[in-house]
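Pilot study result, target chain (303 residues):
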Amino acid sequence: MSDLEDLAAFALLMEAGSFTAAAERLGCSKGQLSKRISALERGLGSQLLHRTTRRLHLTAAGAALLPEAQALQAQAQRARQVVRGLQEEVSGTVRLTVPVSLGETFFDGLLLDFASRHPQVRVELDLANAYRDLLAEGFDLAIRSSQQPDERLVARPLFALQEITCAAPAYLARQPVPRTPAELAGHNCLLNTHYSGFEEWLYHRQHQLERVRVSGQLASNHYSLLKKAALSGAGVARLPSYMVQEELADGRLVWLLRDYQTRSTPVFLVHPWQGGLPRRTRALADYLLGWFERSRQALDGLR
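Predicted structure:
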């Protein structure tokens, strides 16, 4: 440990430029510092400095050693910061923006659970389908589906958004259960006008694409409204997997055409690029990543 401390003192000495300035930063006398440098030279068997009254000149051995001593000093500083960070309380405000349907579905309960774990953190949740400029508008985190990559942001995979075709048992008691996409043409389908071409539903199976024209009495650009309509028995809906896990598990909705794949869109947790996130932001990011991974595993269990 003494050798490491002496190396750090050597690096600090060259950074300060004089024994007087370095001793002051180390909180010791010039004589004590001089003894430490001399001890380091004896231990290495090489002279590191030419001492004059005005300047310090490195020998060849000193010039070779200095970058290594500086690297050790930087590593020690990082280690101290890590330990200090662990001791700091996770507190402060985190601003998070998410799509409306995602926020309405479960972010109330999810964030209440996070709040119980980190009572000193305040989460400001913004629900918006419009694009938010995280840097310009001061957001710490966002959840976004795949878009043109923004080189200013770090994107971490969160989940794959896949629509599930489903209907309530009450509806299926009045109508035959569709076995193929083509049979949806005879059903009352709940349409999402948010997407262009919303009257055409696409399915994949065994590398084949199937298109079906659908129609129905209700169309909306709001997933939550379509979900309520499906639960009431109004018709067949295509809803994001994250919205219907509980309803599929308890039988309030029936998963139709599960052998057919629908479009899958990657969703990311993004944040502005930084050397290191504040602990409060990192705590929420880690919590969200873990929560959605458990949610994905739960959905896989329903297949």
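One observation from the pilot: DSSP finds ten helices and 13 strands in the chain. A full batch analysis is planned for the follow-on phase.
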